[in-house]
Amino acid sequence: MRLFCLLIATLLLGLVVGLPRTAASQTTSPYNVVVPVTDVSDAQRSQAFSTALGQVLARVSGGQDLSGKAGYANAMQNAGGIVKQFQYQRGEGNPPSLTLSVTFDQGAVQRLVTQMGATTAGVKPPLLLVVKGVDGNILGKEDLGALGDAVNKHGYQVSYADPSQLPDLGKLESADPAAMSAIARLYQTGLVLVGELHANGADWTLISSGQAQHWNAQGNSEDSMFADAGKGATDRLSQALNVIGAGTVDGKLWVSGLHSAMDYADLLATLRADPSVQKVSTLGGQDDGVLLAIKAGAPLDGVAANLAAGGRLMQGSSHDGADVSLRWLH
Q1: pLDDT tens digit string along 291-323?
Q2: What mean pLDDT comes out for the span 99-128?
Q3: Of 35, 48, 99, 297, which sees the most CB atoms within 10 A?
Q4: How far is the C-alpha of 270 from the C-alpha of 326, rounded, in Å?
Q5: Does the N-terminal peptide bond of residue 95 adopt cis geometry, omega within 30 degrees of 0?
Q6: Burial of 16 by CB count in 10 Å (0-12 exposed, 13-18 middle, 19+ buried)?
Q7: pTM of the model
Q8: Local structure of residue 157 (DSSP, 8 states)
Q9: Which letter does DSSP use for residue 123 in this model?
Q10: 213, burial (CB in 10 Å: exposed 0-12, middle 13-18, buried 19+)
Q11: Is the pLDDT confidence value at 55 over 90?
Q12: Can you list the positions of beta strands (E) in the chain?
């Protein structure tokens, strides 16, 4: 048995008790949304508040569609009542674009979700957009507005790739562990949408839980292809990540790729920061892996998918005695 197992034993005796339950902070608040407006009139501002609240509710509920819930329509009509602050912003262009940045009261939003009979969930990490234009260059934020809007409408945040801060795209599209580890370090996410535009279509790859899904689509314009891609990506993400449990689930989780006691401590902190994980205990370790007993409020495959979305974990090889297996990324 390797030295790592001895380090685990040391942690079990003392360090584990003091592990923090807080997740890493995000640079953008899930309660803030920027929406386009045509002018500064009361009517436009009221409509912007409603649009923004719809996106925030989807984010905070983990991507659930709440539009059919009792009280949703009334919440949209009175969205301005829970706005914490708002600010108009003018962009570049002729004429210049106009947007409204809206921030909602966190407690009020969470109460709304609960009143609608839904559950508040951990806000999903952003979906990193890596899209090559027809000229082969990586498109920036200013070129991906329609794609970002389509993703936002379904309750997910986005981040944009820096062409100078990307691993090899071929390895990224195949969900290579080293490439995914680099993405996690640079962009703090395990969700990536890779696209390549052609004259009348596009190829898309969605990476989630360390697995790649590929599809292609045709379109008459970039905006229509981006809208379809945004919906297609978020539909796939929601199917994997928005798993709501009806009761408590007990099971065993195997995590490999742990090279030090610090990796082990970080793993436990990551698990405890997930709102669906109720209890974690260590059953044993072997080589670079550890077997954990998990009590969760959702099926373990859904819990594992959400853990991998954060970027520090990806799907691992099956292990005897474990219901699900993950791999720790460095």
Answers
A1: 999 998 778 888 888 888 888 899 988 999 999
A2: 82
A3: 48
A4: 13
A5: yes
A6: middle
A7: 0.68
A8: -
A9: P
A10: middle
A11: no
A12: 32-36, 83-90, 98-104, 127-132, 158-160, 191-197, 201-208, 211-218, 249-256, 277-286, 289-296, 313-315, 324-328
Distance CA 195, CA 182 (A): 19
- 127-241: in CATH 3.40.50: yes
The Cα 182–Cα 293 span in angstroms is 29
Contact by Cβ (8 Å): 311, 296: no
Task: Enter the DSSP assignment of 102.
Answer: E
What count of other Cβ atoms lies within 10 Å of the Cβ of residue 70?
Answer: 9
Q: Which residue has the tokens 């919440």?
A: 75
Element (H, E) at 106: helix 106-115
List the structure tokens of 152.
């936002």
Residue-level length of the chain: 330
Q: Are 197 and 143 in contact (CB under 8 A)?
A: no
Give the phi and the psi of residue 264 in degrees, each rounded to 5: -65, -45
What's the token pair of residue 69?
A: 């819930």
Q: What tokens does 217 get? A: 């689509």
Rounded CA separation 262/220 (Å): 51
**Three-class DSSP category at 40:** coil
Tell me the average pLDDT across 122-126: 75
Tokens 């809206």 found at: 102
- Tell me the C-alpha to C-alpha distance, in Å, between residue 103 and each of 88, 100, 145, 266: 12, 10, 20, 31
